[in-house]
Specification:
Oligomer: single chain
Structural class: alpha+beta
Strand content: 35-45%
Radius of gyration: 21 Å
Number of strands: 8
Order of helices and strands: HEEEEEEEEH
Distance between the termini: 79 Å
């Protein structure tokens, strides 16, 4: 009888440990999503849109325009073992740690980040953005055609 109880408790403890680990992963992904969304939706922000000219599979660029008309470009990149946002002033904000690989896809109104963590788990994060302003879109097309 004692052996049966010990084996049952051992299995229960392993299940709880695995469950806590998976829940922690979900919380990290959600927290990074919320943190970046709050950064994009500051009260002084007029619009935030993708900046495809500076985006590729290793990074995603967004342009953030304030209500005062000030414009800054921010990069989401995979650096060492993290996904981070770099600021125009040279600092950075870590979004997610323990990352093995990250692949970025930038479209007009969306950024998709495919993540492989160091323990092998995979996730996808999507950020919805504003459409690229028509004036910026025309200037970007001119720059592309001139090159």
């Amino acid at each position: 009888m004692t052996l049966l109880i010990v084996v049952t408790l051992q299995g229960l403890i392993k299940t709880i440990t695995v469950s806590n680990h998976l829940q922690h992963h979900t919380d990290d992904i959600v927290f990074s999503y919320v943190q970046f969304n709050q950064f994009l939706a500051d009260e002084d922000v007029k619009t935030v849109f993708a900046f495809p000219e500076a985006s590729n599979s290793r990074q995603a660029a967004v342009e953030k325009v304030t209500k005062d008309g000030e414009s800054n470009i921010y990069l989401l990149t995979h650096y060492k073992n993290m996904i981070r946002v770099t600021t125009p002033e040279g600092g950075h904000m870590p979004l997610l740690l323990n990352i093995k690989r990250a692949f970025f896809v930038t479209k007009n109104r969306q950024i998709k980040i495919t993540i492989t963590e160091e323990d092998g788990r995979k996730s996808e994060i999507y950020f919805k953005l504003d459409p690229i302003p028509k004036k910026k879109e025309k200037n970007a097309n001119k720059k592309i055609h001139q090159v």
